Amino acid sequence: MSLRTEYDEEAIGQAAAFLDDPQGIREVLDAIDRLADEPRPAGSFPYGSPNLRRLRVGQYRVLYEITEEAVAIRHIARGTRG
Prior knowledge:
Blueprint: E1 4-7, H1 9-16, H2 22-35, E2 44-49, E3 52-57, E4 60-66, E5 70-78
Parallel strand pairs: 1-5
Antiparallel strand pairs: 2-3, 3-4, 4-5
């Protein structure tokens, strides 16, 4: 059974700030969509508790929380290009 995906209002605003990189933000949103079926994919890491996790997607980082019914997206950030 798939979990529901929820976005904090702040995370939506953060994602909108990255529209200058349509390919990158598309990859982030695709990875977030996959979390509904696999909330703990390889490459995600606990972030302070087992249900708060961090996922790296290219130069982006997604912080999310897993509950019984949903994956709640808390924060989306972009690192500097190296």
